Amino acid sequence: MNNSFIAKNPSVLWFLLGLSLFTVLVSILSEAAGTALISTSFLKTLGKTLCLCLVAIAMDVVWGYCGILSLGHFAFFGIGGYAIGMWLMYDRTKDIVVTSLENNILPPTPDEITTAIGSQIFGVVGSSEFPVIWAFSHSLTLQLLAVVLVPGLLALVFGWLAFRSRVTGVYLSILTQAMTLALSLYFFQNDTGLRGNNGLSGLQNIPGLDDVSQATLSLWFFWASAFALGSGYLLFVWMTSGKFGSVIRAIRDNEARVRFLGYHVESYKLFIFTVTAMVAGVAGALYYPQAGIINPAEIAPIASIYLAVWVAIGGRGRLYGAVIGAAVVSLMSSWFTGGGAPDINLGIYVINWTDWWLVLLGLTFVAVTLFFPKGIGGLFDLLARKGKQS
Amino acid sequence: MSALLEVSGVSVSFDGFKAINNLSIQVAEPELRAIIGPNGAGKTTFMDIVTGKTKPDEGYVIWGEKSVSLLGMSESQIAQAGIGRKFQKPTVFEAQTVRENITLALKNPRKPLDLLLNRAALDTEERVRAISDEIGLSDALDQTSGALSHGQKQWLEIGMLLAQDPRLLLVDEPAAGMSAVEREKTTDILVHAAKTRAVIVVEHDMDFVRRLNCKVTVLHQGSVLAEGSLDHVTKNKDVVDVYLGR
After folding, report:
1. Is B113 a member of any domain?
2. Transmembrane stretches, by residue range (chain A) (predicted)?
C-alpha cells in the first residue's frame, strides 16, 4: 500500500528528499550549529517561508484542485497565529510579573497577580480586565486546540452557509473576502480584547525557555516548520490522489455533473475548505512565534490575495508548484522591500524597489496568468517532455 | 406493469412562460421510451424536473415501489436513488483519464470519508474493464478523456451511466454528432440496457427513434400531444401539424 502510494506519486519522494536536504544544510550553516554562515534573522526568514509554503499548499488544494478561489485562507493563518500568541503573551507576562512581585514583603494574592498581568498586557489599550476570549490563555493545550479548532469551526460555519446556497465562482470569492475584511476590522477594535492595532508582541520569547538562545530557538522553529510542511504535503498528496482527488477535481471542472453522478458536492467542498483552513491555522501558529509580532493588518484581505498570487505564479493544481511560488515570491518580496535590491537610476527617474516591487509583482501576475497559466510548475512539464523525447 | 416513475400534473413556468404544462408521463421497468417534440416542447425541462435540477410549481413526481416523492430530494440523492442522466453535450471530465471517469461513476459508497479511506468495492477494476469493453474504450483506459473523439466521449458518458447502474436512464440526444456506424452501436447499447431497466431517450432524429423501435411520447408546449408506437403517432393529425404545419 505504502509502496504503491509513493510509486503513484513520485514527486512526493523528490519533495521530501529536497526538503530534508534543505533542512540539514540550513541547520549546519546556522549560528546554533556554530558555522554561523546563516544569520539568526535569516534563519527566521527561512522558517517563516516554510510556513508560508504550508499555507500555500492548503490554498492550492482549495483553489487549484477544488476550484474554490478562497480569499480568506490567510485570515485562518492569522487566527492560528493569534491563538498561539495569546498563550505566549500570557505565560511570559505571568513569569515576569511573578518574578517582580517575589520581592514584596507580603506574598501577592492570585487576584493581584491576575490584575498585574492584565495591566501589563492590556495597558496599551487602557484596560487591565481580561476579556472573555482570553479565558483559556493560561493553558497551552487549549490554545493549541484553538489553533486548529477556531479556523476549522469558522470555515465550517461559513462554508456551510455559502456552499449550501450554491454560491460559486467570483461571488464566493467576494464573500470570502468580505469575511476576511470583517474579521480584520473586528480584530482592529480595542473592544475585541486582542489589543487592537497593537496586536500581540514579544512572541519570539517562549515561556520556560529563557535559557535557550534565540539562535537555538529559531533552529527549533525552523525544524518544526519543515516537519509541518512535509507532513502537510503528505496529507494533501494523499487527499488529492486517488478517488477523493478525482472527485474534487471533477467538482472544479463541472460541479453540476458531479451532482448528477450522485455525489453530495457541498460535503466535499466543505470538507476541503475546513481541512485546509485548519492547516492554515497550524502554519500561522508556527509563523508568528518566528515573526515575533502579529497585528490585525496581517489578516487584511490583501494578504489572502497575495496567497492566491503565489499559488498562481507557482502553478495551480500541483502542490510543489504552490511551494515554489510561495517560496520564490515571498523571498523576493522581502529582498525587494527590505532594500536588498539596488535602485535603478534612469537618469530622469530613480526606480526605488521598495515602492515599485508591488508594480513588478502585479505585472508578473498578469503576465503569468496570460502567458503561462501553468505557472513556474509548468516548466517541469516541459522538462519532462524534453526528457522523454531525447 | 407497475410504474417505476410517475410524473403527474406537473407544471413549471419561467418568468411567466409555461415550459411544462400539466404534464403526465409514466414509465415502467423495464421499458425503452422515446420522447420527441419540437424545440421548446419541454423535453429538457422534463429531465431537469426528474433529476431534481428544477423544482416544479405544481404536480407530483413519484418513484419506485415505495412511491417516494422525488421533489424533496437533492440532485445527488436522486442520482443515488437510481436515476442517471446523460446530457445533450457530452460532459465527461476532460482533464481525467477514461479509467478515472468510469471509476467516478461506478456504484460505490459516495461519502467523502468513504473515498478517503478507500471503502470501494473490491471488484472495481473488473467492473471498469467490463464497462470499457461494452463501450469499446478498453484500449483507451489510461488516455485523457479530453483527447477522445466526439463519438467516443458520447460513449464514455453512456459508459459512466451504465457504471452508475441506475434503474432509470435519462438520455438526451445520444446520437447528436455521430456517424452512421456510431449511431448503430449506440442504438444497440441503449436497447440492451433497456432489457433490465427503464430508459428514456430524448431525440430529434426520427430515423434514430425508428431504430429504437419503442413506445414514443410526443411533447408539445409542455404537455403530451400523443403517445404510442412511432407509426401511430406519426399518423396523428396534431403531430403532423406541429412538425410540419403552422
Report:
1. no
2. 12-33, 71-90, 142-163, 170-188, 220-239, 267-287, 293-312, 319-336, 356-384
135-154 in A: which are within 8 Å (CB) of B? none
Q: Give the closest of A247, A258, A261 to B115, CB-based.
A: A247
What CATH number is attached to the domain comprising B45? 3.40.50.300
**Given the C-alpha cell 463519438, which residue does it identify?**
B151
What value of ipTM does the predicted structure carry?
0.87
The whole-angstrom separation of Cα A199 and Cα A284 is: 14
CB < 8 Å to A264, chain B: 74, 76-77, 110-111
| Residue B68: count of CB within 10 angstroms of its CB | 15
- Which residue type sits at B220? H
* Contact residues on chain B for A267, CB-CB shorter than 8 A: 111-112
**Any chain A CB within 8 A of the CB of B93?**
yes
Cis peptide bond N-terminal to B38, omega within 30: no
Task: Find, among A40, A22, A29, A42, the residue nearest to A334 by Cα.
Answer: A42
* Contacting residues of B for A247, CB less than 8 Å apart: 104, 115
- Chain A interface disruption, residue of B53, B75, B122, B153, most A CBs within 10 A: B75
Segment A340-356 shows an average pLDDT of 83
Residues of A in contact with B115 (CB under 8 A): 242-244, 247
Q: Does B120 touch chain A (CB under 8 A)?
A: yes
A257 and B120 within 8 Å at the Cβ level: the answer is no
Q: How far apart are CA A285 and CA A80, in angstroms?
A: 5
Q: Which chain A residues touch B111 with a CB distance below 8 Å?
A: 264, 267
pLDDT at A1: 43
Q: State the pLDDT confidence band at B81, using cuts at 50, 70 and 90.
A: very high
pLDDT of A4 above 80? no
Mean pLDDT score of chain A: 91
Q: What pLDDT is attached to residue B203?
A: 86
Q: In this complex, how many residue pairs, one in chain A and one in chain B, have their CB atoms less than 8 Å apart? A: 65
Does B90 reside within a domain?
yes
For A42, the grid coordinates are 535569516
**Does residue A349 sit at the B interface (CB-CB below 8 Å)?**
no
Is B109 inside a domain boundary? no
Closest to A243 (Cβ–Cβ): which among B75, B85, B103? B103
Give per-residue pLDDT as tens, B21-39: 999 999 998 899 999 888 8
CA-closest candidate to residue A252, choices A69, A71, A70, A66: A66
Residue A277 Cα, gap to closest chain B Cα (Å): 17
Q: How far is C-alpha B69 from the geometric centre of its chain's CA atoms?
A: 19
Helix %, strand %, coil % of chain B (to 5): 40, 25, 35
Number of domains within chain B: 1
Give a yes or no: residue B123 inside a domain.
Answer: no
Domain residue spans in chain A?
3-389
Helix H segments across A124-264? Answer: 140-164, 169-188, 214-240, 242-253, 255-260
Q: Judging by beta carbons within 10 Å of its beta carbon (0-12, 13-18, 19+), is residue A333 exposed, middle or buried? A: middle
Residue span of the structural domain in which B172 resides:
3-94+166-244
CA A110 – CA B111 distance, rounded (Å): 51
E strand segments, A288-365:
293-294, 344-345, 350-351
